[in-house]
Amino acid sequence: MARFPKAESQIQSLAHEIITGLTEHPELFPNPPISAEELQKMLDTYTRDADDAKEQQATANHAIDVKNGSLEVLGDDMKQILRYAENATSFDNASLKYLGWAGCHARTSLQAPGQTRILEAPRRGAGWIFLDWKAPDDGSKVAAYKVQRSEEGSESWIDAGTAIETETTLSGQPSGRQLEFRVVAINKAGEGQPSNGVQAVL
To answer: Where in this chain does the record put each Fibronectin type-III domain (predicted)?
Structure first.
């Protein structure tokens, strides 16, 4: 048995087919409970109501956009006032409570990261080495890590690579020499203290 459709477009399409069938084949359907003319009137009514609903929905959507725009402007104005109040009162919470704005803290400037911890070299091979370490437990947020290398007998360090995560594999390293590696956490404010060093002959 056929199922009556649920989607509006399918109901509308079926209505057109019923009207056409009743109109073109009266010999098959001589006395329908609803005539083709009456059904056409109901279809026309639905079409007008659907068009009105679309217009109202468009108006409602526009009203929502206007409301959201006003809310954004309101929020921006409030933020300006609150930033002014924070600076005017030096972030004094007792004073800011008069504006319903408490629990604020003065912004702290970005600081360099702390010292990178527990550098290890669990794997290595000819000309390459895998290093991993722990992030600093103090200082500001780390933006990246700089991996440095020094050769035995040298007091200088050269940059051997960079990493975003707390591990990296360095390739193309000098072979057959005593090398020492260390890692330095960095951000826009500067560099942290170097990690412990690990020695290796690759």
So the answer is: 112-202
* Gap between the Cα atoms of 15 and 7, Å rounded: 12
How far apart are alpha carbons 15 and 50 in whole angstroms?
Answer: 15
Tokens encoding 182: 């260390």
pLDDT tens figures, 81-138: 888 888 888 888 888 888 888 765 655 678 999 999 999 999 999 999 999 999 999 9
Residue type, 65: D
**Helix ranges, 89-178 (H):** 93-96
Residue type, 104: C
Name the token pair of 131.
Answer: 């290093």
Q: Give the type of residue at 10.
A: Q
Report residue 147 as tokens: 């991996």
CB hemisphere CA count around 76 (13 angstroms): 6
In Å, the largest CA–CA distance within the chain is 109
3-state secondary structure 84-102: HHHHHCCCCHHHHHHHCCC
CA angle 88, 93, 139 (to 5 degrees): 90
Closest CA to 145 of 118, 122, 161, 163: 163
